[in-house]
């Protein structure tokens, strides 16, 4: 694993602490990322995204979707009602999990739906009007005469 020194970034910038913290968090994660449960992240429109997580075997009440400090946290814990069953082969994993997704600024969770063994979480990026690009009118360069009175003409 590579180690990056973020000190030059801190010395040369002001107000970019969040970016540096995010880089530290991403680079300090363990190399072996969890692969369960599998998920997709897709872009559904210019400012819309969908996270789809395979949650076969989980009921709605077993799943939890929570937004905390800019992180989307999806977790599941199977209730222990299957104790009387005897499996000859158990290939559907229903072990507990917790997945965290770091959301960018101005991204909000629009909703979540659990259908056909998939948990779909819809996200929308809403950029405030103050941060949207705007066109600046350019003057034609002709100076406008101001109402200036010549001091010699008055006296």
Overall mean pLDDT: 80
Q: What is the CATH class designation of the largest domain?
A: Mainly Beta
Head-to-tail CA distance between termini: 83 Å
The fraction of residues in strands falls at 25-35%
> What is the second-level CATH architecture of the largest domain?
Sandwich
Please give the domain count.
2
Order of helices and strands: HHEEEEEEEH
Q: What general outline do the C-alpha atoms trace?
A: elongated
CATH topology of the largest domain: Immunoglobulin-like
The strand order across the widest sheet is 1-2-7-6
Find the structural class using helix and strand composition: alpha+beta
Count of beta strands: 7
* CA-based gyration radius: 27 Å
Q: Unreliable segments (pLDDT under 50, ≥5 consecutive)?
A: none
Percent helix, as a range, is 10-25%
